[in-house]
Amino acid sequence: MSNFSFLNDKPEYKNFSKDCIDAEEAFQNSFDSCVGLVRKAIEAAVKWTYATDKKFSSASDNLFDLLSNQTFERAVGKNLIGKLHYCRKAGNEAIHNEKKFSADEAITCLQNLFDFVQWIDSRYGKNFKPRTFDTDDIPVKDSTLKKILKGAGLVAVGVIGTIAAILLTDDDKKKY
Question: Fewer CB within 10 Å, N or C, the chain?
Answer without folding.
Answer: C
